[in-house]
Design brief:
Distance between the termini: 26 Å
Number of helices: 8
Order of helices and strands: HEEEHEEEEHEEHHEHEHEEHE
Strand content: 25-35%
Shape: globular
Radius of gyration: 22 Å
Structural class: alpha+beta
Number of domains: 2
């Protein structure tokens, strides 16, 4: 059964050890290592031994044959990225993030394997979107950023400016006014600016595998988390209290910083916002396309 799964995505399948294979991607021929594991594997000495040997395996590999490791849990129909080349070092996910084993998620994991060789390809549609960063410089010159991700849909799409030529688009970054901006973005930015008036917004599209790889650098920094409680606004106070329980919405926004002391005062904070009840349906649709920044971590 293991080979049947592998044959969907790889060629030149060689079993090195029991449940451990060296394979090559069908479209590029780049090598990867596949481990078939169970849930109990991560508590075993075999896993610890493999992690110890992983760095040595990477250092002994060549630039043309660098190593990436993908995990497959056949019993639970899951897949994960354990290790991948990132610049001149090997990034190891000791506690890997699991995804459903399907064509789209395997395409995403294999795209990171390709990025180690400088091969650029589009991400699966489920990963394409916008990364929005709200940057703040504190009084002590420390900095932090609130970061989140939005998915595209029919309403949330880029606004192309007609006065920009194709050459300008190649030479300069996309201007901020071309990115979509809706009431949910307004709520988040308004509350951040209420606390930090000097906050500035920058956005970028997440389109290619190399961009997704580069975003992994922030995984090593533990975020602070702020909860925004959004309640409907009514004319009657009694109705507002009743509706807040039924129609209240919570979103989690993550803040990142290279300086842990910059996050101490906001971690675990809860902010309260309100919205017109008439906008309830629109706002819930917008929130369905919202994801914490950590959703890009593999």
């Amino acid at each position: 059964m293991e080979r049947t799964i592998l044959q969907k995505y790889y060629t030149n399948i060689v079993e090195q050890k029991v449940h451990q294979y060296l394979v090559r991607l069908k479209d590029t021929g780049y090598p990867a290592m596949i481990l078939f594991v169970t849930e109990e594997y991560f508590e075993s000495q075999a896993y610890q031994t493999f992690l110890q040997h992983l760095q040595a395996m990477y250092y002994n590999s060549t630039e043309d044959e660098t190593i990436s490791v993908i995990l497959i849990n056949e019993e639970q129909n899951l897949c994960a990225l354990l290790a991948f080349a990132f610049g001149e070092r090997l990034n190891v996910n000791v506690n890997p993030k699991w995804f459903e084993l399907n064509n789209e998620n395997m395409e995403m994991l294999n795209s990171i394997v390709k990025s180690a060789y400088g091969y650029i390809c589009m991400l699966p549609m489920t990963m394409i979107g916008i990364i929005r960063e709200i940057s703040i410089v504190l009084e002590n010159n420390l900095s932090l950023s609130f970061v989140y991700r939005r998915d595209f849909d029919k309403a949330y799409k880029m606004n192309t400016l007609r006065n920009r030529s194709d050459a300008q688009r190649l030479l300069y970054r996309t201007p901020e006014e071309e990115y979509p901006y809706d009431s949910l973005d307004h709520i988040i930015l308004s509350f951040v600016k209420l606390k930090f008036p000097n906050a500035k917004v920058t956005s970028k599209t997440l389109l290619f595998n190399t961009q997704l790889r580069d975003e992994q650098r922030m995984k090593q920094y533990a975020p602070a988390e702020v909860t925004i409680n959004i309640s409907p606004l009514f004319n009657s106070p009694g109705n507002t209290i009743m509706a807040a329980t039924r129609f209240g919405i919570k979103i989690r926004v993550e803040a990142y910083s290279y300086f842990s002391q910059a996050l101490g005062n906001i971690n675990g904070s809860e902010w309260v916002a309100s919205y017109s009840f008439n906008d309830f349906k629109i706002l819930t649709q917008q929130i369905s396309r919202y994801k914490p920044y950590s959703s890009v971590f593999l």
